[in-house]
Write a structure and sequence with these properties.
Length: about 325
């Protein structure tokens, strides 16, 4: 499909859609933060989340308290044999476990905030299938990595470019789908990723044909200063490929470092968690600070939500 860009270009953050008829929007912004800005989260229908810990982490079995198991409502597809979507663009899994694996499985995925995280079944242009993670920011919009919605430099004929479709399974717990599955073929990213495959612009969105987010709720997101982030504990939950298929796993750690495009943290993740939210907890509310996408020898990292990213997320949420 042809790509339609918005007016008022913002460099690598110019919003791009895979649907020519869409009128994508973006606003010009600066990278350096003078004061925090944020969008509010929502706990969705009948939202009664567990109280977060005072240290800014989730109250999770293995951390603080027992999580109740959920009953199966829908049957999920078998994704246990599928690889991380990051491998399509990079050849290897994009995220890593450092030393002992500190991840804890989430069993009560049908409640907020765990139901905000979605297991993704991605069908590429060549019909190959992959796994990833996304998270709601509004009634019909999920955020994920750019390489989840658009594959770059795979070297496989017919594979590169916008993916064909993504099945979104909020709060998946193995074979159980408490909110069913919704398939989307409408995506967003930015030209820094679509045109150049630049990891500093590796973020995108999935637009659903329904308002499922009104039931699951969503995360807020914000722009925060370097000093604020360096004093923050980051949380990540998602769907790694090294664990039983379609199970959700959580870990947290203090932010290790930041620059004007990335946030770094020693949080254990694995391929399949591409696109997860790296989020903080403020007064019991969850606010994303980065889109998890990459690994490293000592830290993993995500695309930092700076003002141009924030502006695109606000536009994509509309």
């Amino acid at each position: 499909m042809s790509e339609k860009k918005v007016s008022k270009p913002t460099g690598g953050h110019t919003s791009v859609s895979n649907m020519p008829e869409d009128s994508a929007r973006a606003k010009k912004g600066e990278f350096f933060v003078t004061k925090p800005i944020s969008q509010q989260p929502s706990e969705g229908k009948d939202g009664k989340s567990d109280k977060a810990s005072q240290d800014g982490t989730e109250a999770v079995l293995g951390h603080k308290k027992t999580a109740a198991a959920m009953e199966a409502i829908f049957v999920a597809p078998d994704t246990s044999h599928l690889r991380d979507i990051g491998e399509a663009s990079f050849g290897t899994a994009a995220e890593t476990v450092h030393g002992p694996d500190d991840r804890v499985q989430i069993n009560n995925t049908s409640v907020y905030p765990w139901r905000v995280h979605s297991s993704l079944l991605i069908t590429a242009a060549d019909n190959s299938q992959w796994i990833g993670t996304g998270w709601f920011i509004g009634p019909h919009t999920l955020i994920t990595a750019g390489h989840v919605v658009c594959i770059k430099n795979s070297g496989v004929p017919g594979r590169d470019g916008w993916v064909k479709s993504i099945s979104v399974m909020p709060g998946r717990n193995g074979n159980s789908l408490p909110y069913g599955s919704v398939t989307s073929n409408t995506f967003r990213s930015v030209n820094g990723w679509i045109n150049d495959g630049n990891e500093n612009y590796d973020y995108g969105a999935i637009i659903l044909p329904t308002n499922l987010g009104n039931s699951t709720g969503w995360f807020g997101f914000g722009v925060y200063s370097d000093s604020d982030l360096l004093a923050t504990t980051a949380n990540i939950s998602g769907y790694p490929g090294d664990k039983p298929g379609g199970t959700q796993w959580y870990d947290s750690h203090k932010v290790a470092n930041v620059n004007d495009r990335k946030v770094y943290y020693d949080i254990d993740t694995y391929g399949g968690q591409s696109g997860s939210a790296a989020y903080r907890i403020i007064n019991g509310n969850r606010y994303a600070i980065a889109i998890h996408a990459y690994g490293g020898a000592s830290t993993n990292s995500g695309t930092r939500i700076v003002t141009p990213v924030y502006n695109n997320l606000v536009a994509w949420k509309a």
